[in-house]
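Hey, can you fold this one?
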Amino acid sequence: MTLGLSPHDLSALEQFRSRVLGDEALQSELSRVGELGRFAELACGAALARGIDLSRDAMLAATKPDPLGVSRWSAALANGVDWPAKDWLPIHVTPAFGGPPRVDWAHFAGERLTEPFFESSLRRALGRPFNRMVSYRTTLDDFVARARLDEALAPDGFVFHMSRCGSTLVAQMLAASPHNIVVSEAPPLDAIVQLGSYWPALPLVDQARILVAMVAALGRKRSGKERHYVVKLDSWHTLALPLFRQAFPTVPWVFLYRDPVEVLVSQMRERGLQTVPGALPPSLFGIEAGEAMRGEEYCARVLEKICGAALNNFALGGGLLVNYEALPGAVWSKILPHFGLVHGEDDHAEMRRAAGRDAKAPHSAFISDTTEKQRQASDLIRAAAQRHLDAAYRKLEALRLA
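Sure. Predicted structure:
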């Protein structure tokens, strides 16, 4: 990012970065500036005030965009040991050849996580000049050893789901309240869930300790208004229910599901990562020769594994099953009480407004697509649903009604 700079400019940049990392007030001031020219002006002025002669050209070179995210894979060593200030959130856990995995952080400028997915908030954060100029990286070992659990809210609930069944709606309704922290499908959690696939000898208790630290790092109280904390997970994380119960044995969870035909129609329109053969470690689903299968068949088998995990692990305790058909009303009647969340009328009003919007496109009104999906279901989709998912769906319904 800073190729072609003089030794003087490189030295000045490193001095300034070091000063910024030690000054929370300066981090807060600079992180909120989105316009590059204004940022360069403020940063150079801040450097000069601290006796560092930093040129505008050097600052512009240090804040060039990284659209492909190449910097994540750089060989740069960890430049920190402790957790950074509360407005920094972990964003990636990256393998390091010949050493422990690394945790990369980004400064979120005090902004709440209100987008449908953590990735959207992350893209906005990484688009700010501050996060292109200053990076923070710890080893995973230090990340766990230096965890500041006392700075975080304990999670009130976890949202597991079949996929394409209303989990984003639930998350968006909860995120509408400024008193809630809602983390929705954060990539660092993916990495922790997959550690067992990469390190088969990793004891479950150690993996759970890492998960506790990551959930805490994502749930630190940043505004002072937060009272509740909910984590919405990716659909395939349901396979890791034993890990989550090991790490959080008393935290309640819900599993959302929907008519399999409607879920498969949605997946065949736009495949989720978990339904693409080879996108995740094959050991997660235990499906052989997935690349040779028709899309409908592979998707149905993946969804069967996910629903099976919810059924097989329900006896671990703390679970609640919610059918998509019961939404959004089940948020108030079932999910909030199950998680023990108490809100005022203003919060409920915001949640009602969120329920009226399309969860994945919040600027659009919600329109039910159940009839349309049933109409569009092909014979191949219906056959795959009947072959692999009907039994699981009926068992989920029976368990819910029981």
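The chain has a mean pLDDT of 93. Let me know if you want another pass with a different chain boundary.
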